[in-house]
Sequence to fold (588 residues):
Amino acid sequence: MRAPVGPSTSMRRQPRTPSEESAPETSMPPPPAASAAGSARTSGASGPETGPPPAGPISYERHTADMTRALVDFLAPFLPTDDEYRQKEALRRQLRELARHIHPDAQLLAFGSMANGFALRYSDMDLCCLVPQDGEARTASELVEELGALIRRDTDFTVLSLPHARIPIIKIRRAPASDTPYEVSCDIGFNNKVALENTHLLLTYARLDPPRLRALVLFVKVWAKRRKLNAPFTGTLSSYGYTLLVLFFLMHVKQPAVLPNLQRIPSDTPLTRADVMLDGHNVYFYDNMEALSQWHSDNTESLGELLLDFFRYFSRDFHYVRDAISMRTEGGLVAKETHGWSADFLCIEDPFQRGYNVARTVTKDGLYTIRGEFMRASRLLANRSVRAHQLLAELCTERDDGLTRAPDSATQRHAHARSRSLHRMYPATPDMPPLPSSLPWDAYGPGMSFPPPLFAPPPGAPPPWWPGAPPPPPPPGAPELGYRKSGRSHSESSSDPSGPQQFRLHMQAGESQGPFLSPPGLAGPPSETLVPDFQRLALAGQTPSDYAAWRSETADDDEFSTRDDADDDEVFGMSPDPRPSPLADRRP
Fold:
């Protein structure tokens, strides 16, 4: 059972902190002007930046604190409103009724950014139509033509049916109107259950640490759009790809990790391979929100610090020629040759579809441009003599030119980083015990998911409070549970540098969970949103105390060694890089 996370748990700073989005967001508002830098401060933060600019460089601590507050102000106009969520949910229900003319049990479910917590204002919608295949089976192409004709007949949408595309879809669009003052665009596909699981995975991550994860993802998406770096058809990376970059960075680059690796945490109950395989893909991840809401990271870096380090890492430290990002693995990186991706310029493995490179669209010129923009961002944000609001406004200035041509004399030479990363390439996660081949059609919940609030102090939090503020120490006697590949607890092996820290789980009896913002009027509690039925049943009845007791009984077991890495075809045997981490000293 997935318990919702509210401000009282997900925003306390210990700190805890969809398949591919089909199109970049459109009609975004402009970034706030630097002159409006002082507005909309968070509770307990210092006042607006007023007066003359600093006479010289300010301290790193003040610079990153100012950057955190500036990001709060910057993102406010880009967040979807409650009205937008309600309007799009009403549209989803309208289209669902049309889909039920095809089959009375058809479901129309949301996936992508509007359902996973990483949507910007006026984002496009992605919908998946699940049609039971009883009686005479119809192909996706036939379903596209049939539903497209119904939408064209009964609505005022402009409809483009693509039945012969590699993935048959329906693209619909409606111009701005009095009730919706923005263009509504929507793509409808059929029976793409892996995309729904992907959405559920990202939504679970979004609930763990909204002030840092969601804010960082949303800013990177705004930056990529304004710098024209998020158009796969021109040779750059999709918004979904940038989301995975941020998750990889927070999960595998930062030490201690900001986020746990949900695909590496064992299930509370035994699962068979049949339980976790869906359309040939392993879609297992740990989604018990009741237990995850008790998790706290040892990483206390603020949002401003994380933003600076994100751009610094991908501008100079990530090895673009050698490494492929594999978020689901323990180390986060595998060699490109693992999947035969040596010819690809940028490689990001999809969390569930192991042979699918999310960044396959990135060309040589595209990577040259993207990395150049990473370098520009890193240089700009490192300037401590300019106010943070001005830096963010300049960073997201609209870029008019196209891709920068990469040098012809040295193929991929620009992609060789200084390679100072501490990463170790671990064996890939073997197939573990996703969903039964046939699902009940109510296995997924409703579509639009109201994300947790980005910037709000937890109830009763003593001032000052801001995203990234150091938390109070845990109560005396609060048990701590941790996991490492060796099977030792975190407290037993915290000084052992042989492997990356996994996560720490504080079980605090009686800790308030707080509400999760759910769409008014929607059927079903938020805990049922997009959760597979088998997981809901398997995890029913689990409580933090039950979970703590179960983990205590198995604390001495080698949880991760139960996976038979020898049977996997992606095993590596590489030693950790002995060189110091480029992020060990974050102060320029």
Notes: The first strand starts at residue 107 and ends at 111. Residues 82-99 form the longest helix (18 residues). The chain has two domains: 1-17+209-434+471-588, 82-195. The chain has a mean pLDDT of 71.
